[in-house]
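Ticket 4471: requesting a sanity check on a complex prediction with uracil. Repro inputs:
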Amino acid sequence: MLASLRDYVEQLREEGLEGPPAATEARPAAGPRAAAAPARDKIAPPAPTPPAAMIATHPARDGSPATAAAPTELFYRYPGLEKTDDLAALREFIGECTRCKLAPKRINLVFGVGNPSADLMFVGEAPGADEDARGEPFVGRAGQLLTDIIERGMGMARAEVYICNVIKCRPPDNRNPEPDEVAACEPFLFRQIDLVRPRVIVGLGTFAVQALLKVKTPIGKLRGNWQDFRGIRMMPTFHPAYLLRNPADKRLVWADIQEVMRELGRPLPSRGAQR
Ligand code: URA
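Returned structure tokens:
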């Protein structure tokens, strides 16, 4: 009963009939800055956004300058985040995180997995129970479908791409992440994206896409249309969990994936492979 109610709410969300508050609203009020890895029993709120003068630029992997729109000010909520120069350093910086109220209930912090210099990055919402247990994103049923999309649909190995979530810890009972949790976690996602510097990001589902783009537009309107995430091509598409309940919409995701393959200049596997 509870599970089907949750499914229904999730479906409404995917269809844009009920969206979480955009992450822009999630900016916390001014508060003390969080230390890099504060003690587990103390939950420190993110620090305020700094003045524009403090905003740094971060070059892309190929050395070209970061786009002017880069919200690098987010780094300054956690002093030193901008100095992490690879994913291992970023993971170490995050540490046994207690920066938001999800910390006490998680089993594992789910950082991300895959090729650290992938051309293609998938961003989902938040870990579920399977991901929390294993410490790896997209390993449950929805994850299996994502793996099929990558391996059978795109003809790529899962290890060739990079996969992560907006939120690194599981919200209890798979509830929606809350604005303060997004605010605490999104600097890590943005740093992750800057470090991987993929050519294409695929945003999976309403929550991820709205958090990345800072919009409230429903996924049904955004999907299939290229977006710009700080100079990186971003393709919004439906979340695999939505596809499990709405298999007829797989054809729409396949169309989006074909766009992505074209953008990456990769051959499309034969039509039969993605069924
Ligand atoms: N759903 C997500 O958005 N992310 C996961 O890692 C698993 C399910």
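Notes from triage: Confidence is low (pLDDT under 50) at residues 1-9, 15-70. Leaving this open until the requester confirms.
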